[in-house]
Amino acid sequence: MAAEFPGNLKTGVLDEGPEAEECFAEFANDEVCPVLDPETGLCDLYDARPMTCRTFGPPVRTEGGLGVCELCFHGATDEQIAACEMVVDPDDVESKLLGKLEKMQGPRGQTIVAFCVK
Questions:
Q1: pTM, to two decimals
Q2: Between the CA atoms of 110, 41, 25 and 78, what dihedral angle is there, to the nearest 10 degrees?
Q3: CA 54 to chain centre
Q4: What's the Cα-to-Cα distance from 84 to each of 24, 39, 72, 98, rounded to whole Å?
Q5: Residue 114: which residues within 8 A CB-CB, separation 6 or more?
Q6: What is the number of alpha carbons within 13 Å of residue 87 lying toward its C-beta?
Q7: Half-sphere exposure in the Cβ direction for 54 (13 Å, CA)
Q8: String of DSSP letters for 40-96
Q9: 49 — alpha (psi -120 to 50), left (phi > 0) or beta?
């Protein structure tokens, strides 16, 4: 997967821009999550999992519309899917915490779980 990673392999920080975004949208889609214990199938990072993991499954609104996990909602209507929408971090707690962290440790870029746990 290293040759296709859309960012810095050493730091795990993703590249910015439309080309990198497009590449990342498809990156490692068929791979098993690296923090799942292969024997139990349980998440080794569950208590400290990132927002992406916390919202996987329910429909979540982004700039591109209502994002839905391709593994869920087979045969559901748009209305049924919209009724399940989850509002992520309505009080913007994540941004506030990240701001405090950056003041303490310096700015960071976007990463993915696989490179944070290696």
A1: 0.39
A2: -120
A3: 9
A4: 26, 32, 11, 28
A5: 1, 12, 28, 31, 33, 34
A6: 4
A7: 10
A8: T--BTTGGG--HHHHTSSS-EEETTEEE--TTS-TT--HHHHHHT-----TT-HHHH
A9: beta
How far apart CA 45 and CA 53 sit, in angstroms, is 10
Structure tokens at 118: 């290696």
Mean pLDDT taken over the chain: 80
pLDDT tens-digit map of 18-69 = 888 888 777 777 777 888 888 988 888 888 877 777 767 778 777 778 877 6
CB 36 within 8 A of CB 17: no
Which distant-in-sequence residues (6+ apart) come within 8 Å of 91 by Cβ? none
User: b/e per residue, 3-42, with b = 16+ CB within 10 A?
Assistant: eebbbeeeebebeeeeeeeebbeebeeeeeebbeeeeeee
Give the model's pLDDT for residue 112.
65
* Average pLDDT value for residue range 6-28: 82
